[in-house]
From TrEMBL:
CDD domains: AHBA_syn. It comes from Aureimonas ureilytica. The keyword Lipid metabolism does not apply. PANTHER family: TRANSAMINASE, UDP-2-ACETAMIDO-2-DEOXY-3-OXO-D-GLUCURONATE AMINOTRANSFERASE. It comes from the Bacteria. It holds the Pfam family DegT_DnrJ_EryC1. This is Aminotransferase DegT. The modification N6-(pyridoxal phosphate)lysine is found at residue 195. GO terms for molecular function: pyridoxal phosphate binding; transaminase activity. The active site is at residue 195. One of its GO terms (biological process) is polysaccharide biosynthetic process.
Length: 381
């Protein structure tokens, strides 16, 4: 019987580093350094070295990493934060949690990332209407590909807005050799296990070159504590990265650059071999972390395609079947002028194939063959 193909393989990497992780976990147990211990400090230093950013504030999840800067900037009721709708819920959820208004912006049909022209028009329209104060933009590095930050930064500067990179999927992605922090005030990432750099539970990190902001974020991370531990100077959270997760990340980070190279190779091979499909396009100067390899199956044939893939033992997943602006919790938030036609079209067509840094050529050949057979079975190609 042929081996079932996993959508993401975490086991191969785990087996490579298992003993070293277990030694670290044992040391934490021996020392009792469960909270803010040396593993956390080691990881923050290493992550700053990886990205060249001055400050790394590790935290409990990618969602906290997005929420905390909004809290630090006192974003709240009456404020507008511009976000794509074609993303995971957390991107807009954090805006709603502060009491501010998420304003949804469309994405581009080829890269699936925020459309800078639609963003500019939407910010200008909200600013001229005067009901909401434009305060920030959260751009998402979707499926691993860094957003097109130069024009997004220009809009942020023109309207005096903060810019957050939601790098939960694309941490480590570069454009023209620059990481997102070259343009963004803050880079927020997630270490959820399935992310390109993931731990074995929940975790996240914020990076910034702004030392003053970093001090506020460290305070928010621990209940808004002041210089005196029992004088809380602002509202905060319990948002620390725990030592066990930091230990896992300390073993995974040294592998990460090589894994991004492997993902680039595997994605290029998919793109060479897959005929008759439209994958997410990656600009020539971009290194993507390829959190997902996503194609479009048009003409209402996606469900039949996925069923045909399943029959051939290949799992596929839809990211995302509904834009956030179409979901119950977010329907009341405004969308940019003329609606979000690209987001809505993508939601009906996208489907992601198995993708991870340890995908063998042989398994990839099986997947590619299954795609070709499934497409012809549903008469797309
Ligand atoms: C784009 C995006 N933003 C934010 C998050 C939130 O991260 P977490 O699950 O660590 O809270 C995720 C992933 O889950 C994500 O994919």
């Amino acid at each position: 019987m042929t081996q079932p193909i996993p959508f993401i393989d975490l086991a191969t990497q785990r087996d490579l580093i298992r003993e070293r992780i277990e030694a670290r976990l044992g040391r934490i147990m021996d020392q009792g350094s469960f909270i803010q211990g040396p593993e956390v400090a080691e990881f923050e230093t290493a992550l700053s070295a990886f990205s060249g950013m001055k400050e790394t504030i590790s935290c409990a999840s990618g969602t906290d990493a997005l929420l905390m800067p909004l809290m630090a900037w006192n974003i709240g009721p009456g404020d507008a934060v511009f976000v794509p709708s074609f993303t995971f819920a957390a991107t807009a959820e954090v805006v709603g949690l502060t009491g501010a208004t998420a304003v949804f912006v469309d994405v581009l049909p080829d890269t699936f990332n925020m459309d800078p022209a639609h963003l500019r028009r939407t910010v200008a329209a909200i600013a001229s209407r005067g009901e909401l104060r434009p305060r920030a933009i959260i751009a998402v590095d979707l499926f691993g590909q860094i957003a097109d930050y130069a024009p997004i930064r220009a809009t942020a500067d023109e309207f005096g807005l903060k810019l957050i990179s939601d790098a939960a999927q694309g941490f480590g992605s570069t454009r023209d050799g620059h990481l997102a922090g070259y343009w963004a005030d803050v880079v927020a990432t997630s270490f959820y296990p399935a992310k390109p750099l993931g731990c074995y539970g929940d975790g996240g990190a914020i990076q910034t070159d702004d030392e003053e902001l970093a001090a506020i974020l460290r305070s928010i991370r621990i209940h808004g504590s002041g210089s005196d531990k029992y004088d809380n100077v602002r509202l905060g959270l319990t948002a620390r990265l725990d030592s066990f997760q930091a230990a896992v990340l300390n073993e995974k980070l040294p592998l990460f650059a090589g894994e991004i190279e492997a993902r680039m190779r595997i994605a290029a091979r998919y793109s060479e071999m897959l005929l008759g499909v439209a994958p997410q396009t990656i600009a020539g100067d971009v290194v993507s972390t390829w959190a997902q390899y996503t194609i479009r199956v048009p003409g209402g044939r996606r469900d039949a395609f996925m069923a045909a893939m399943k029959e051939r033992g290949v799992p596929t997943v839809i990211y995302y079947g509904k834009g956030l602006h179409q979901q119950t919790a977010y329907r009341h938030f405004p969308v940019g002028g003329n609606g979000l036609p690209v987001t809505e079209a993508l939601c009906g067509e996208v489907v992601s194939l198995p993708m991870h840094a340890y995908l063998s050529g042989e398994t990839q050949d099986r997947i590619v063959q299954a795609v070709a057979e499934s497409l012809s079975a549903v008469q797309v190609a």
